[in-house]
Task: inverse folding
């Protein structure tokens, strides 16, 4: 369960007259952080331009959603992003922006720390199209990575346990 609070949304002058742009604003608090969207919408022809942002979303609160795919335990981290989303009448989709992660910590299933990163930034993200989808990234930078690699007596590597599926969350 995740509390969603401080939900605010407004749409001004919404109608289907050609060329009429409506102002859109929305925000909410979730995962100990916030999500915002602000921009314009023209219904005829369809033209959506939104500035999207996330700030300090708690990554450990997302652990239950990855348990089915990975035994990794996310113990720390905050996610933030900013970008622009565009969709037009031909349903052409484009997103450009950047994203960052700070204080990320991942534990092995046994609870010992497997890796940590002081910060990671992805800049120049450009995603377009839906089928096929095109993704371009200009720059990825990682500050102060710390990875604990252990070769066990059976020659297995501890980090491989992170790739194994974890327990499915209780329904």
Result:
């Amino acid at each position: 369960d995740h509390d969603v609070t401080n939900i605010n949304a407004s749409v001004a002058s919404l109608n289907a007259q050609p060329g009429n742009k409506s102002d859109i604003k929305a925000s909410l608090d979730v995962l100990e952080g916030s999500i915002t969207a602000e921009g314009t919408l023209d219904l005829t022809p369809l033209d959506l331009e939104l500035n999207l942002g996330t700030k300090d979303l708690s990554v450990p609160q997302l652990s239950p959603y990855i348990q089915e795919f990975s035994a990794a335990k996310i113990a720390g981290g905050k996610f933030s992003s900013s970008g622009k989303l565009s969709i037009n009448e031909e349903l052409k989709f484009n997103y450009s922006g950047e994203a960052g992660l700070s204080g990320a910590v991942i534990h092995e299933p046994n609870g010992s720390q497997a890796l940590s990163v002081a910060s990671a930034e992805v800049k120049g993200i450009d995603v377009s199209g839906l089928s096929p989808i095109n993704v371009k990234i200009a720059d990825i930078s990682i500050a102060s990575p710390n990875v604990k690699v252990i070769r066990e007596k059976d020659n297995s590597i501890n980090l491989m346990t992170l790739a194994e599926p974890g327990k499915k969350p209780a329904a």
User: Anything to note?
Assistant: The helical segments are 63-66. DSSP finds one helix and nine strands in the chain. The beta strands are 5-12, 21-30, 33-42, 47-58, 73-88, 93-107, 113-128, 134-136, 139-147.
